[in-house]
Amino acid sequence: MSVLDLARPEIRAMQPYSSARMEASGGEVLLNANESAWAPVGDDGLGCNRYPEPQPAALVEALATLYGVRREQLLVGRGSDEAIDLLVRAFCRAGRDAVLIQPPTFGMYAVCARVQDAGIVEVPLAADATLDVDAVLAALTPAVKLVFVCTPNNPTGQPVPRTELERLVQALAGRALLVVDEAYVEFADEGSVADLIDRYDNLAVLRTLSKAWALAGVRIGSLLASAGVIALLRRIMAPYPLPLPSVDAALLALSGWGQANAREHLAVVRAERTRMCEALRWLRNVREVLPSQANFLAVRFDDAAGAYQRLLAAGIVVRDVRRYLNLGDALRITIGTPAENERVLAVLQETSP
Questions:
Q1: pLDDT value at position 60?
Q2: How high is the pLDDT of residue 353?
Q3: pTM (2 d.p.)
Q4: Do β-strands 119-122 and 98-101 pair in parallel, antiparallel, or remain unpaired?
């Protein structure tokens, strides 16, 4: 059974929109897309008066090389959020199909499901914030078409071992597509599972340039999956998802200099994460610092609301995650520069009872 058999039949059968840029390339006088013949002020040769490539060849090549997949196994779009939305729309029939998530986790999986009127099956993380594969499989129903797993998980920071992910994808064969969200994998000790895509056609991997690559404002994310899944999603993707300035910024970040810069900052974040974890654990107002392999720490406080307000009064904004399941006493603190981290510790130390 192909994983495409799980997708909506009407999506598999539909005739996708064919843009002017897709239908014709080359030429010197471009009069096929109703674009302006004049570049805008300040364009500096970028060509923003023309529609961009639907999947820019240079960027696709750079990302495929970075992630160790073939070009046809990669779809680039507007952050991971777009890929999540496309997956739900392609695989879940409104009012009939469902996704499975493990709260507390990234909220966009549920949001995209609700927009599509798809069901949501929840299998909470274990008490130690780890994924229970057996519980996930026990909760699986024929309606579930997508199983989302975030590793390292947001907002807890815990990774899922590769062995558990492979056990899960094997058990889901012919039943559901496993979507592994690796937004924070660059900060983790264990690497990506993208190399398993050739072995399992029901595996998809989400990657982003927003975190480790410092391009949150550029909005570039990738879906890595079998060529069939990529081709399916291109049927329903917007014809021109990537603005030229974003593509330009991404290519610079992925250059030799850009990669060296990213590696330098990754090393700082990992070192600061260890330092912050140890320092926070000594504060009397802190109940627990959850183990994390992301670029943040989930911290349990005796008085999380008070800690949040004191940090805010000092000009420091952290994420209040008390509304998340089993995190009613927690704040999520992103690892900043060493100086920014010192400010956080100073405020919490001064106010620790």
A1: 98
A2: 54
A3: 0.96
A4: parallel
